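Sample log: PPM-type phosphatase domain-containing protein.
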Amino acid sequence: MIVWENFGSMEDTVFCGVFDGHGPYGHVIAKSVRDLLPLKLGSHLESYLSCEEVLKEISLNTANRMTSNNLVHISANGESRVYNKDQDMVQTLLTSIVKAYRFMDKELKMQVDVDCFCSGTTAVTMVKQGQHLVVGNIGDSRAVFDMRNKENKLVLFQLTEDLKPDVPTEAARIKRCRARIFALRDEPGVARLWLPNHNSPGLAMACAFGDFCLKDFGLISVPDVSYRRLTEKDEFVVLATDGIWDVLTNEEVVEIVAKTPTRCTAGRALVEAAVRNWRWKFSTSKVDDCAVVCLFLDSKPDKLSTASFSVDKHISNGLTELDTASTSIPGSGTESPELNGVDRIDTLVTTKE
């Protein structure tokens, strides 16, 4: 996961993301995407594809998305639009995210020191720029959003859709590409993506970075993107990997965050609740890796909370403990030159003065 304040050297701009690797080299790919994707996004914020070109690309690969007040999803036919005085900034963010995701996947394919053929990662990322909130997603990580209604009650929105193989529009694309979708006998509720003539790799998602063995058979890396214009009623956004959502509902996640005594402990409270539920509901299974970013949307200084869990590292609070992951490009032996000028505290990145 990563949180980058003053992203792109712009005030009141935050980039957040969580990444969940899978396969033999999934952890390496997730770290590579974590380090390089925000750099690519930043570079594309000024030089981005034309709006019509990107909307056409999305229309070929994503499903119709629901809309609500101040919330816009780009639809399959490309007809959804954002119309307000800040339209240029919104479209810049939307198109830059799509372009950055596409270039990130190309970058992985060219890397010779990381085997991305049967390994990959999901990604859910968010850019908050002033009152603009843009989310990009591939895979089955998720973003939820909380606000207060007129009665001061919590109201949540799921900002992303879990892009799994049995989602109707995803399944239609996969079948057009001759791949197969079925669940294993001992996991009847988990639809998986399989090669046409081989019972492998059995990927439980329809979109991912890497996994190039499936890229000719319906797996894509074009993100589902959504936009919301923030208001004073909006409270926080939660990004988390499927290790959280497999055992906690959206409502439970929002309730836990809203009830934490201090904001800085919100991420840790979510991870601890998820780990408890994993051990209770799936006592014979290994606890899945969990990563959480909570971003509070008011002007108070303590607006960020992160936490993660893995069977190797256990629970860590992302704002206080140093990350053991390197900021270097895998195999290069040197730190990525684009990261000069930033500090990394676990996954919290801030611009140096």
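Observation: Residues 87-110 form the longest helix (24 residues).
Observation: The domain at 2-351 is CATH 3.60.40.10 (Phosphatase 2c; domain 1).
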